[in-house]
Design a protein that fits this description.
The protein is an alpha+beta fold. The chain has helices at residues 9-16, 26-51, 62-69, 79-91, 98-109, 138-148, 164-167, 173-178; strands at 113-118, 123-132, 154-160. The chain has a three-stranded mixed beta sheet with strand order 1-2-3, covered by helices on one side.
């Protein structure tokens, strides 16, 4: 009999450790396969639980991260945006600096960010270099930056948009129709 009769990978492995005279015993095969299925479920549960300890893989454990950091839980938000918010909140601890703002903003956006200070104007700018258009979770980013920045500093956000010279002769009409209007300069 072959291992193909096993529904559990761990059951087949367990069976390989048994003496050869059990090779044709349907009772022992069924018993070991059932035990293997339970072990498969146990390992799956352990791996899923382990994933909750890391923000980038957390699913059902994300609510605990949000509660621990004082973030309001919004189950309607895409899970990637929720993870970005948690990650940026974790990165947002420490002394205020351009590097801190950059780390927090990059956790949200996933792209390159440039932070520049204008001391004479008591302000700084956050410029999105890779992202075209306004990031979908900008409001969350604004809230976190407001929490970490000193109250006397103003913040400006600068976005990159598609311009006519970047699409003329480069993108087909079909590609332009598939591109969100918010990615074009002047788009809603």
């Amino acid at each position: 009999m072959s291992d193909a009769a096993f529904t559990s990978s761990r059951g087949a492995e367990l069976f390989s450790y048994l003496p050869a005279y059990y090779e044709f015993s349907r009772v022992i095969r069924a018993d070991v396969d059932a035990k293997g299925a339970e072990m498969d479920a146990l390992y799956s549960a352990l791996n899923e639980t382990l994933e909750q300890f890391f923000v980038r893989t957390a699913t059902w454990g994300l609510e605990r991260w949000e509660a621990e950091l004082g973030i309001s839980i919004d189950r309607n938000k895409p899970i990637e945006q929720r993870r970005s918010l948690v990650e940026s909140k974790l990165r947002g601890a420490g002394t205020f600096s351009g590097r801190l703002v950059k780390n927090v903003a990059e956790a949200y956006d996933g792209g390159k960010i440039d932070v520049s200070f204008q001391p004479a104007e008591w302000s700084f700018s956050v410029k999105f270099l890779d992202t075209v258009g306004v990031p979908p979770n900008l409001d969350d980013l604004k809230r976190v930056i407001e929490e970490i920045k000193p109250a006397h500093l103003a913040v400006k956000y600068e976005f990159k948009y598609l311009l006519i010279r970047e699409i003329d002769g480069v993108m087909s009409l079909n590609e332009m129709e598939q591109t969100q209007l918010s990615k074009f300069a002047g788009g809603a």
